[in-house]
Known about the structure:
The chain is mainly alpha-helical. 66% of the residues lie in helices and 7% in strands. It has helices at 7-28, 31-41, 47-58, 65-72, 76-88, 110-130, 136-165; strands at 63-64, 92-96, 104-108. A 3-stranded antiparallel beta sheet has the order 1-3-2. Helix 2 (31-41) crosses helix 6 and helix 4 (65-72) crosses helix 5 (76-88).
Amino acid sequence: MPDAEDPEDERxxxxxxxxxxxxxxxxxxxxxxxxxxxxxxxxxAARSDIYLLRxxxxxDGASRIGDLADRLMVKPSHVTRQIxxxxxxxxxxxxRDATDRRARQVxxxxxxxxxxxxxxxxxxxxxxxxxxxxxxxxxAATVHVLRHLVHRYVQRVRTTMCxxxxxLPCSRQTETSA
Length: 178
């Protein structure tokens, strides 16, 4: 029986997890699948645009572009380009920041929220089909472990970004949801 503290076992476990996560990421982010999902929702949005819509929906009200960039761990100029595309589709709107007249805030429009809800529902339906027959406690345990993994991984990415890029992308330690 292998020793629970054996570093070789940890590498094998991490290697197995990496393989499963890589396969899952591939299946969830295939271009054709993404294009089918967004077409059903009636939009043309890149996968990164969907993450931005999700970040906006999880925010408490409107968000500044810098806060969104920090949450998504990208540069503000990248978010600005995304906002331009999404505003052109009437999925988000820019408003003046009440506390800083120079700044703008962004929030989902009613159409943006509806589109995101349709995309989420399509994803949930697909996952529910894939999980058919898997006991609920197993799914709940998987969610718990993956949330922990995402939290730890985000911390590691932020630490790397801080050491490589300086203070811009790591100025605030915001949580990223799974």
